[in-house]
Amino acid sequence: MDIFKIIDELQKIDGDAVGRLEHASRRHFMNRVGSKIASVAAPMAFATIVNKAYAQSAAAVDVLKFALTLEYLEAAFYKIAVDSPSLIPAQYKSSIALIGKHEAQHVAYLEAAVGKMDLKFDWTYGGKLTDTHTNFKTFITVACALEDTGVRAYKGQAGALMKDPTILQVALQVHSVEARHAAQVRRIFAIENNSAVTKGWITGNQSPIALVQAVYNGEDNLTQGGVNLKGLAGKSDAAISEAFDETLSKEQVLAIAGPFIG
Amino acid sequence: MERISNSKNNSDKEDQKASSTVDRRSFLMSAGIAASVGAAMVACSKDHEPGPDPVGTVDLGSGDVGVLNYAYALEQLEAAFYIQVIDTPYDGMSAAEKTILTDIRDHEIIHRDFFKAALTAAAPTAIIPSLEVNFSGINFKSRDIVLGAAKLFEDTGVAAYNGAGKLIKTADYLVLAGKIVSVEARHASVIGDLLKPNTENFAGGDVVDNNGLDKAIDPATILAAVKPYLKTNVTGANVGK
């Protein structure tokens, strides 16, 4: 791992990254870690941990930047929906609002650690979607794709965080929240589309719509830990595939999410 | 209360089918950790099948094998619970609920048997036996009690895997834990929504904090939390160490 190359690349993205991270650790942490407001103190404490990690494992910062990119996308996606008075059917408003709140919290948490990024989004997905925030069925389909992608994305980065146990744990804590979201939006999708085959978990490589098939490719994997589990406990291939979620690499995730990031 | 592997219901059949088709050697080869396995447990014979041991104290062992045993213990508990849920459905279980709970039962059985196969391959002398469960405090006829217990088990499982991640030293095992924990989180979400549909209960403030983070809990705390549901005394002071 070439730590200087990564720092250099990070500086290209965010020119003041190093200075700001030092600032975060020395000043804000000292001032705020003793705060009784845990929701404020925790991101700053995390920022300090990330700053320490900066010297030990620049890869971790790289992962967090990647995570923040996805969280920005999700947070913006739900913010528009929640702010659109006629998009979300009444019965789902609570669920969607909570998911949006969590994504905004993830953004704030990660921003405190690695700084802000300025991203613009293309909700047409490169011209392929015309009603992302005006048709609830389209919205909930995209929600499924984004959440299921998020789960695979965090999972795919876990190995890169092994040298930074505290950061790894935070990533895992976000990862399982994304999975909770995924199950909920998938079940809403199933109700809205009268789809008995769409469940809270992913069956085989089944995708809600063909456009987002790449999100689900590989989810039909039956080999875990080098062992083909076909027939395990007499269960079906479908059940075995459901029992394990799969990873996506950073490149695969960016290929999927890229058209949203304009 | 019943022994997981000796019950007269489905669990008996489920266990007999376990892992028979799994190529244990390939897991051993791929994992590449056979040499690092510590003999934390009292040695068992190579062909020992877990189950008939008398109830007593089981230690999960140390290092990565300890973490795998820890996961195996929790999956045994979850599988036994859902087997019972489907064998003795609560009053008024809808067809949709039965489908969901049957799916979850199957996932947990798959997780359980996966860990059994993986540990048998990687650490045949350190794998823990089948644990004896204690569900005497659960009224399986009550929907609220059963789904409440299911939520507890799922949320506990999520917090346990989240807390164990940093204890894992082998990257392949960390990814495997990640592949399973997100399915447990999907279960937790669905069960939460069955209890209180279309509310925040799929990812509520009882489990997700003000930073949008799920819980991450250490093995000692988790083992204390599940103690009432296990007749076998499970200790894990050295998990991940």
Describe the structure.
The complex is a heterodimer of chains A (262) and B (241). Chain A is an all-alpha fold. Chain A has a single domain (58-260), classed as Up-down Bundle (Ferritin). Chain A is built from ten helices and two strands. Chain A starts with a helix and ends in a 5-residue tail after the last helix. Chain B is mainly alpha-helical. Chain B has one domain (62-231): Ferritin (Up-down Bundle). Helices cover 51% and strands 4% of the residues of chain B. Chain B is built from seven helices and four strands; from the N terminus they run βααβααβαααβ. A two-stranded antiparallel sheet of chain B has the order 1-3. A two-stranded parallel ribbon of chain B has the order 2-4. In chain B, 56% of the residues are buried. The model of chain B is unreliable at 1-49 (pLDDT under 50).
The gist of it:
The complex is a heterodimer of chains A (262) and B (241). Chain A is mostly helical. Chain A is built from 10 helices and 2 strands, in the order ααααααααββαα.
- The separation of the N and C termini of chain B measures 33 Å
First-to-last CA distance of chain A = 30 Å
Can you list the strand order of the major beta sheet of chain A? 1-2
In this structure, how is the largest beta sheet of chain A organized? Answer: 2 strands, antiparallel
Largest sheet of chain B: 2 strands, antiparallel
- Biggest sheet: strand arrangement of chain B: 1-3
In the predicted model, the low-confidence regions of chain A spanning at least 5 consecutive residues are 1-38
Estimate the helix proportion of chain A, in percent.
Answer: 55-70%
User: How much strand content do the residues of chain B show?
Assistant: under 5%
What is the strand content of chain A?
under 5%
